[in-house]
Structure formats: structure tokens, C-alpha cells
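Reader question, answered in our methods column.
A reader sent in the components of a multi-part assembly and asked whether the whole thing could be modeled at once rather than chain by chain. We filled in our standard form and ran it. Here is what they sent:
COMPLEX SIZE: two components
ENTRIES:
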Amino acid sequence: DARVTQTPRHKVTEMGQEVTMRCQPILGHNTVFWYRQTMMQGLELLAYFRNRAPLDDSGMPKDRFSAEMPDATLATLKIQPSEPRDSAVYFCASGLGTGVDEKLFFGSGTQLSVL
Amino acid sequence: SQQGEEDPQALSIQEGENATMNCSYKTSINNLQWYRQNSGRGLVHLILIRSNEREKHSGRLRVTLDTSKKSSSLLITASRAADTASYFCATDDNQGGKLIFGQGTELSVKP
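And here is the structure of the entire assembly that came back:
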């Protein structure tokens, strides 16, 4: 059963530490999205890629966040240095890359707590 | 920035009743999608309606779209306790591919 895999599922860290979240998109999907979910802001789009190229990362704080796709099977989201306000659930989603009418498949998320 | 806004924020009903959730959006779209999220899990795609469609059905789900009012509704008929979840609408940015989600409606179905 094809699914998006995210690791780790939970991460607790101290302020100032580097955090790396990983995502394995569904094989054959060529779009990858990173979303952040909080009670206050809901689901915010941080960045998305098509064919490993970043298309839009305007939702991401550039000074501390970075997103990359080293290869087609791995997407990473890094926060350096982390801050308590970064505490949230981070979701990765992938899609076939059809553009119009594309539906997304979500991972189970990484729950991040920055103390 | 938020594109879709759901209404109500929370809805509590008895099993067997129908649940209706509404979504309003701001700019023109190619399609509108509804997703479901169970507590502690990722979102799951439910249904997609294109901008040139007015109504679509899938099992117990019925979605309507009114592009003149920039609004959509999701109706779940004969609800079950297992339908308890948060429901989100999502719209594209009319440039293809980028989905923006609303704040969601939290549905509770009591047995």
C-alpha cells in the first residue's frame, strides 16, 4: 500500500538546536509539499517542489528554514536554529504532478516540540 | 495566506443525522477539494470538484460548488461515529498544483 513516510514521528528539542525532518514521497510522485499545522494558524504551506525543483517557498521563514530534495525519494525540511514558536506538526504530502486537478497524499506528520 | 474558510468551526450531531459544512474562498480556482483528518493523523483526500461542475457525489458525500458566490458545501448523509474528524476544503491558486487549506470544521458524531 503506497504511502508517504515521514520521520521522525515525534521530536522534542531545545531552543537553538538544529532539527531535520525527512519525507519519502510515494514512488512515482513528482510533487512534494511541506505544510505546518498549528491550532492558531491551521495548515500553512511552507514550500513545494516539482521534479525536485523548488517552485515556491514563500511561506517559509528563510532565515532559519530550508527545504531540499537531494533525490526523488527524499525531501528534507531543516530548522536551524529552532525556536519555541516552531512547535507544530509538520506534514509532507506528495502528488503525481498533474498540475490541475492534483490531489495530495499526506504523511502522518512530525510533531515537533521546541522547549 | 488562507484561501478557504470553513463554517462552522465545530459541529456536533447524532449518528444517523446529516452533517453540512461550508467553505468560502477568495480568488478564482481550477478546482476545490475536501480532505478529512482524523486526530493525530495526516489528511486524506475525499473528493474533488472542478470549477465547471456544480455538484458531485461519492458514496455518502455530496459536494456542491457555487463559483459565483465563491463557496462550496460538503454534505455527509447518515453520519456514523467513524465520521468524527476534521474536514478541510482546499483550493488551488489557479496556476496549477499549489493547494491552500482552510481552517477546517471539527465534526463530532455521537453514537
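What stands out: Chain B is about 0% helix and 55% strand. The first strand of chain B starts at residue 5 and ends at 7.
Send us your own complexes using the same form.
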